[in-house]
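re: the backbone from monday

yeah here it is again, tokenized this time
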């Protein structure tokens, strides 16, 4: 899923994404309290991803967890909810916050 997305967009950071994938899979499938069918659940957990360049892994895991259809991973970029960094304005169902390059988390 990650490589398909990077090839389709002709953009992405493979090493950053691959270095996160196992952690994100474990978090989203075993630890975080999230519900893709009820994304605004008040008791949900949030993920703060300080490695924004690894967002391809986050997208793949979110699709795998059911937050959006996997077809979004390779859809045409214009009008797509995915981008170089996750944007909660485009997809408010995401329960993650991402620091952009050069920003430190508190």
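seq for it, each position gets an aa:
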């Amino acid at each position: 899923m990650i490589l398909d997305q990077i090839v389709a967009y002709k953009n992405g950071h493979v090493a950053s994404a691959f270095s996160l994938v196992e952690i994100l899979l474990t978090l989203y499938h075993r630890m975080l309290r999230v519900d893709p069918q009820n994304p605004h659940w008040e008791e949900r957990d949030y993920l703060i991803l300080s490695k924004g360049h690894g967002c391809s892994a986050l997208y793949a895991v979110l699709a795998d967890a059911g937050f959006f259809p996997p077809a979004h991973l390779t859809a045409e970029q214009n009008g797509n909810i995915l981008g170089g960094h996750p944007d909660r304005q485009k997809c408010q169902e995401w329960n993650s916050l991402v620091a952009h390059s050069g920003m430190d988390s508190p």
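The two ends are 31 Å apart (CA to CA). The first strand starts at residue 47 and ends at 49.
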